[in-house]
Amino acid sequence: MSCGESSVVIVGGGTMGGDIALLFALGGWNIYIVEPVLEQRKTLPTRIRHKLQELCAEDVLDRFMLKQSLEDVPWDGIDIVVECVIEDLPVKQKLFNKLVTYSPANIPLTSNSSGFPISWIGEGLVTQQRMLGLHFFMPAHIIPLVEIVSSAETDPSITQHVTEIMKLLGKRPVHVKRDIPGFLANRLQHALIREAISLVEKGIATPEDIDTAVQYGFGFRYAAAGPLLQKDLSGLDILCTVATSIYPDLCNDKVPSAYLTDKVASGHTGMKSMKGFYDWDRKRISSESARYEETLKEVLDILK
């Protein structure tokens, strides 16, 4: 199967859905984006065109086809489905229940959920053997990693097929063999974030100093070597000795901290509300977002 002959259905035209669509289009695929919300359908073409201009890839614009519902898709020519709807389990379950009816019997049905196991989404469905988690990271067309998450019911040949598709699209897939909540990268990330928030809450460090410690310390090294390889480089004996004194003092809260929940309750949700761990204004949001994406592209060039 060559990418140029292939078609994908992406259900959900938000930020992630649009960026995943870009990835497939840049790989030569035809894209059907299903977006039932009128406002999203109105803004999506402009968002896609703007990003294609940034990538100097406007020649793939004609590969995008926007549809209002699953019923409008020409299903006979579809090779894979990627679900990108809101992070709401009943909504995802309802969608995959409908896909039982519409999708061809042999194609992979995947979910970009960042936390729900695919076995929860597909519970009771006859399509479980061809269902996978396919978790991208923002911005999905730049970050190389994609997690391919199997349930106990997933056919290994489907997993391998989706892995090969991702490789053809230039991604670095990892296989998560058990669909535990949070999968692989988000579990690691949340362990770090939980400790970072705890340090701020206890007054031990500011958000600025924590971000600096990660970005210019061990985070800097992670572009060259992941945490386990890095510890092989530095020595497991040192790791074991230091862990003995640090582990008992680490945050092990079972729920989000009061510091975090109070911010959310107050509407301080980050850039979109102009206040989070930092204070924001429109100018700073624009410059920081541009710097962030440009830095990611530079790191990607290094890794390549």
Give the class-level CATH name of the largest domain.
Answer: Alpha Beta
Distance between the termini: 25 Å
Mean pLDDT: 95
Number of helices, counting only DSSP H or I runs of 4 residues or more: 11
Number of domains: 2
Describe the biggest sheet?
A: 8 strands, mixed
Work out the radius of gyration.
21 Å
Residue runs with pLDDT of under 50 for 5 or more positions: none
Question: Structural class, from secondary structure content?
Answer: alpha/beta
Strand content bin: 5-15%
Which architecture of the largest domain per CATH?
3-Layer(aba) Sandwich
Shape: globular
Strand segment count: 8
**So, the CATH homologous superfamily of the largest domain?**
NAD(P)-binding Rossmann-like Domain
Strands of the widest sheet, in order across it, are 3-2-1-4-5-6-7-8
Structure description:
The protein is of the alpha/beta class. The chain folds into two domains: 3-176, Rossmann fold; 185-303, N-(1-d-carboxylethyl)-l-norvaline Dehydrogenase, domain 2. Helices cover 47% and strands 12% of the residues. The protein has helices spanning 15-26, 38-54, 89-102, 118-121, 156-168, 185-201, 207-222, 227-234, 236-246, 258-265, 282-303; strands spanning 7-11, 30-34, 64-67, 80-83, 109-111, 131-136, 145-149, 172-176. The protein has an eight-stranded mixed β-sheet, sandwiched between helices. Strand 1 (7-11), helix 1 and strand 2 form a beta-alpha-beta unit. The longest helix is centred in the C-terminal third of the chain and has 22 residues, at 282-303. The radius of gyration is 21 Å and the shape is globular. 24% of the residues are buried. The model has no long low-confidence stretch (mean pLDDT 95).
